[in-house]
Amino acid sequence: MTLKKITNFRSLGGYQNAHGQMVKDGLIFRSGQLFELEDDQSHYLGQTLGIKHIVDMRSDDERTEFPDTVWEGADYAVLDILKDATANNASLGRMITEKGNVHENMLATYEQLALSDSAKTGYRQFIQGLLRPNEPTIFHCFAGKDRTGVGAALILKILDVSEQDIMADYLQTNAERTVANEEILAGLKERGFTDQQLKSIGEALKVDADYLRRYFQVIDQQFGPFQQYLREGLKLSAGEIAQFRDLYLQK
């Protein structure tokens, strides 16, 4: 029996950083939401990959409507990254109801991912929660593209992976979500959504290099160098950053 693919699922391992070190594989995984996983999918994550920790970056409403499947032996933590953001366009409901230009709305969301208190607190706690040796973790939001995409970019940036590889991982989401996005749009069409609505939602379901660039531009404008953002924005200590690199980079 072939394992059904988990939407937007992949490891963050295997990248080589600026110093020739490889990011360890099999320890940090990203995905879309873990709603209604099949038994063999849960077995694959929990037993084959040995994932011990689930980090859910979604809102209360998202978690209520689409609760995660939690397998035996895994713990489950919630980090509502955009809880107090003034512009949260990252959930499906918001994508459907939001008025205006999708591209501009998403750029505003990425500014919130850099500056909102819930994002800074959530990403700090996320990085601190990863300071455990040899305990695989999976993290996700709804689509695994924005809140998750920034979380993945943060990890790879801390590990000194190149901007090119960070962006490639980020943009891979568009290929990984092709089938899931088509299913979402087909379901909405059956419910009577107009072609213009479907076009806007289809755009919102994709990532764009402009979005991640805006995130890092805002960090640069507000904090200066990335290391300063880690210290002043995320309140991570030099010791925590050193420990993180020690845990996730091959010697």
UniProtKB/TrEMBL annotation:
GO molecular function: phosphoprotein phosphatase activity
SUPFAM superfamilies for this protein: (Phosphotyrosine protein) phosphatases II (SSF52799)
Pfam families on file: Y_phosphatase3 (PF13350)
Family: Belongs to the protein-tyrosine phosphatase family.
Protein name: Protein tyrosine/serine phosphatase
Lineage per the UniProt record: Bacteria, Bacillati, Bacillota, Bacilli, Lactobacillales
